[in-house]
Amino acid sequence: xxxxxxxxCTLRNKAKDLDAYARASAKALGFxxxxxxxxxxxxxxxxxxxxEIATKLSSVRAMAQARDKGQDLVTLCSAxxxxxxxxxxxxxxxxxxxxxxxxxxxxxxxxxxxxxVLHFLEVIRDTxxxxxxxxxxxxxxxxxxxxxxxxxxxxRPGKIMAFDDPENPKMLEDFIRALGxxxxxxxxxxxxxxxxxxxxxxxxxxxxxDKIQESAEGFGAEMLITxxxxxxxxxxxxxxxxxxYYFTELLxxxxxxxxxxxx
Amino acid sequence: MSHGTNKAQQxxxxxxxxxxxxxxxxxxxxxxxxxxxxxxxxxxxxxxxANGDIEALAESKSLWKCLSCFACVERCPRDVQPGxxxxxxxxxxxxxxGGNYLTADEIPALLDEELPQQLLVSAxxxxxx
Lengths: 263, 129
Known about the structure:
- The complex is a heterodimer of chains A (263) and B (129).
- Chain A contains 13 helices and eight strands.
- Chain A is of the alpha/beta class and 263 residues long.
- In chain A, the strands form two sheets. In chain A, strands 2-1-3-4 form a four-stranded parallel β-sheet, sandwiched between helices. Chain A has a four-stranded parallel β-sheet with strand order 6-5-7-8, with helices on both faces.
- Chain B has helices at 3-15, 27-31, 42-50, 54-59, 71-75, 82-94, 107-110, 117-127.
């Protein structure tokens, strides 16, 4: 089973491990991530302006390439996933954006949102299945109490992201259970980490991650997992906070491919 | 057409939002994680645009406090999407000469060893033209 794969800028730099653990885990689970050629940065945030076309084109190019290869497109970083999925929704449903983007692109076949954009976790849930994942676990993470940190971008807006129930998600808890660990549900798991505010106003971001960390710890979590490099960066700014891991690191560990992933 | 009305029209076009749909329930402000930091609150933003009072919005520090977390967008019972209005007001400001909230010169002093690329590109997109 082969998917087109869009890693995004941070997975080529500060979050190389998020990518490496995912590739090794995919192999262990029986699917392959085929990286798109010449992909470009998604821009990190979805351009909200209805008149912004140029800033949406890197997403369109990636999705058109996957379409031409006849593959679904897999993402890992929450921000890339958010941007690609929302631009795809525009290309499907907003005629003005679709027309102007295609007028600019001049593709041999206009792109109209045909590609299915999937987060890596959706592939595990919907294609592999959590029961099957559980069977492939060789090092169950028994006894670990793990708080899932969803943040904003995977979940909202729920109508477009269609990832999980935006107010009461369970995807990552099911994932944690499949790895043999114990999920800890805490109230701040889908609250914002501060996002890009941490560049110019680190104190404001820290006041937000302090609350998330305190909430998770208060409910008994020993560690947090996330899919987003920026969430992880912000959550790590809380002093004496819980350690924060990429979900793919725990996945690779449970599947017994952690060592070879980083070779 | 006065200057303010013209700008209000621009905000409506860029955001694609119709502020008259708002029923002033205040849920957007109640759910906003940046509420305490904002001088003009999310539900007020909607009224300012409906009333064409754009100068105050352009000077509001709220433009730079919105986190694009989409809590207001998710929870609005009328699908007004206040976050889109705030972004459109931000666009009106940064599209003017000298309107950038972040410049390249500032970046080196803000970097640290762990800072992900994602943070820089995101801040550029929101704060700069």
